[in-house]
Amino acid sequence: MQDNEEHGGARSRELLTFTLGREEYGIDILKVQEIRGYDAVTTIANTPPFIKGVINLRGIIVPIVDMRIKFNLGNVEYNQFTVVIILNIAHRVVGIVVDGVSDVITLAPGQLKPTPEFSAGLDTEYILGLGTVDQRMIIVVDIEKLMTSRDMELVEMAAA
Amino acid sequence: MTIDMSQFYQVFFEETAEHLAQMESLLVGLDISAPNPDDLNAIFRAAHSIKGGSGTFGFKDMTEVTHILENLLDRLRKEEIPMREEMVDAFLQAGDILKAQLEAHQNGGEVDPAAITEVCERLKRLAGSEAALETPAQQEAAPQITSSQCFLISYTPDAETASNMERLESLYAELASLGQLDFTERDGAAKTMRLTTGAKESEIRDIFSFIANPDQFTITPAATEPAASDDDPGYGFFSVEDAVQQDTDPGYGFFSEPPSPAGSEEEDGFGFFAPIGEIRSQVEAQQGYGFFEELPAPARHEPLPVSAPPSPPADAPAKYGRRESDKAGTVTAPGAESSIRVSVEKVDQLINLVGELVITQAMLAQTVAALDPVLHENLVNGMAQLERNTRDMQESVMSIRMLPISFVFSRFPRVVRDLAGKLNKQVELKTLGESTELDKGLIEKLADPLTHLVRNSLDHGIESPEKREAQGKPAKGTITLRAEHQGGNIVIEVSDDGAGLNREKILAKAAEKGIPTSESMPDHEVWQLIFAPGFSTADVVTDVSGRGVGMDVVKRNIHEMGGRIEIESALGIGTRMTIRLPLTLAILDGMSIAAGNEIYILPLAFIVESLQPAEQEIKTVSGQGRLVQVRGEYLPLIALHELFSITPKVTRPEDGILVLLEAEGRKIALFVDELLGQHQVVIKSLESNYRKVPGISGATIMGDGKVALILDIGALVHMTN
After folding, report:
1. With contacts defined as CB-CB under 8 Å, which chain A residues touch B351?
2. ipTM of the complex
3. What CATH homologous superfamily does B404-582 map to?
C-alpha cells in the first residue's frame, strides 16, 4: 500500500471512491472522517436546493450537501442505501450525500492523467486529474478546494 | 537544569493585572482625610507583590516604578506622612504606567520613558519633600483629632545645638505643629515642655531624632491639663485624680498600652489595635468590667469610675471591636477567594460535555416515557434521578463561568473620577448589586457598551454644578450602576439624575438626519432614535462624546449578546438606560413551535404572549399586508411558513397560534402551526461548520436527537420591514 515511489515529487495517493449516477469520483481519504447512512435532516429555509440541511452528529451541527443535486447526476432519492460521507476539511465538518461508496484505491502518480479543458457541471479547476483503474475512469477531485469554494455556498465568503 | 520562566509569564501578567485593578479601586475609594490603615496596607501589599513578581521575572522597569511607589506607600501606612489628594493622583498615574509596562511586556512595545521618569520624579518629590509640607498638613489635621494626650518632654541640647537658636526654633515649630506646645522651662540648659497632641510618642521621637541623641531627651506621657480634660481621655486616668472625672471617650486610657516602653508601636502599624483586641477579649472573658479590680491602684484611690463610666467603655470596645472585625473581614476575604487558574478552553469543554449529557438525558427520558411506568418502575425512578443530577450538574458547571459584575463595575470609579475632573463636574458614582453574577463572555463584551453609557451620562446627562444648583438640585450629580437578576435575565441599569433627554431636540435632529418621525410618537420610540447611527444632540463635539458614534454601536453590541436596551427619561430629572441580557451565552430558555414538519425555537425573552386570534381580528391593508388587532394595537402578522417557504399544516391564522414577539422596540405577531413546549436549550453554532443564516441565530439538539433551529427575533422583525 505505502509504496513511496518518488516520481516527479508526487506520491501515490489513497483515494476513497464513490459513485454519483454512473460516474465514479475519488477523494483524498485523509479528508474523510466517517461514512454513515442518510438520516432525516433539519432543513434550513432560503438555501440552495443542494444544501439539504443540518444533522446532529454526536452533538455537532453538520451541514449536509447533496452532490447529486449539485452536479445534476443520478436519481435523487433517499433510501437505506443512500450514503453520507462526513468530511473533515478546513477545520470544518461537512457531510456529502452520494449514491454509494465503492472502494478505497491507491493511484500511483503515473496513473493520473491531466483533465482536458471542456465545459462540465464541475469546473475543471477542482479536478486534480483522471485516474484509470480496471477500465474505470475515476475523477479525482480536490474536495477541500471544492467544498470551500464560492459555488458551494458553505463557507462565509469575504466580500471580494 | 534551567527553568523556563516564560511558562509562568502568563500567570504573572494575570496576577499583576489583578493587583493593579485592586490597587486602583482601593485608591479611588480612599478617604483622603482619614485613610483606612487596612486599605493602605492592602495597597502597599499589592504594590509589593507587583514589585516582587516583576523582579523575579526580570522586568526591571516595573520593579523600579513599584519600588518608588512602595516607598511612599510605606511611609503613608506608617503614618509618617499625611495623605494628600495629589498623592492619589500620582498613585493612579503610576498605576497607569505600570499597566502600560505590563502590556508592553505582554504584547511587545515600548512605554514612553519620559512618562515613566515623570511619574517617578513625582512620587519621589511627594515622598521626599515631606519635611516642608508636613507642617501645614499637620496643622490641618490637628483640629480633627479629638482624642489627644499630653507628653512631658525634657530636652538637654548639646552645646552646639543650644547656641543655635534657629535650630531650636525649628524644632519647637515642628513640635507645635503636632499640637499645643507649652514651655515650663525654656531658657535653662535643660528645657522642659508640655505637648498636648493627638500624635503618637513615636512621632515626637522622630522629630527629636533629627537633632538630638536619644539620651538627650526624655518623653513621658503626663496627665492632660485640667482645661483640656473634657474631651481628653489622657493616660492619666489611673494616676491623676482630677482627670478621672472626665467621661468622654476614655478609649486611650483604658486600652492602650502606656507608651513608656519607647517606640514599640513604631515597627508595627497594627500594634496600636492589637492590644485593644486582647484587652477586649480579656474583658469579655472576665464578664463585665472586672478588669478594674485587676488594677488595684486606681481602684483603691478612686472607686468612683467603677460605677460611673460603664457606658463609655462599653462603647469603646464595641467601636474598636468593629474595627477589629473590619480588619478580620479584609483579611479573610483573600482567603475566601482561594482559587485555581483553569483555562477558559477547559471550562468550555466541560460545558460542552454537560450540554451533551443534557441532550442524552432528554433522549433517554423521551424513550422511557413511552414505557409502561408500572413494569419499569426502577428505570423510571432512575431517570428522574438522572434528570435531577443532570440539571444540578449543568447549573454548577455553568456557574464556573460566572463572574460577579463587579469585574466591570470596578473600572467605573476611575472613569468617572477622571472624566468628572476633565469636565469640571461633580459626580458621585453609586454601584449596586455588584455581586450579581453573569457569564464571563458577557462580562468582557459588556465593558465597552457600559463605559459608553456612563461617559454619555456624565457628559450629556449630568449638568455643571452651577446649572444644577440653579435648578435646585444638589451640585453633585449621581450616576447609579445597578445590576440584578430578573428571572433568567440580568438587568443592568445606568441612571443619572441629570438633564434627561430632550424630546423636541431629538425629534428636530432626527428630522434633520432624514429619519422619519412624527410629533405623536410615544416617548420610548423617540428615545430609541438616539440609537440611530450618527445621531448626536450634543451642541458641541467634545473629545468625550458628542460625535454620534457610540449609541448605535452600544445597541449593536447589546443585540449581539442577545440582549436589549431600553431608555426611560424625564426632562430635568434624569435618564435611565436599562440593559437586559441573558445570563449566559450557552443556554437559552426557549419555546418550541411547529411550522409544517419543522420545529423551531423562539427565545423566551422575546415572547410577549401567544394567542389564538378570532377571524374578525385579522385585517388586511390593501388586500395584502395582514394585521392583527390585539387590545387596540395593530400588529403586523407574519406567517413563519411563508417566510421560510415551508408547507404548513394550517393556513388560516385563526386555526393556528399567534406568538407576539417584541424586539428593538417593535412588536410583530408570528403565525405558527402550534406551540410544542418550553425548554432550556443548549445553543450550538451554525457557523462553526456552516455559515450565518438570515433569520436564524443558532441551532440546538432536541430530545429526540434532531436539530432545531433557533430563530433570530431581531432579524425577523427586520425581515418584515
Report:
1. none
2. 0.81
3. Histidine kinase-like ATPase, C-terminal domain (3.30.565.10)
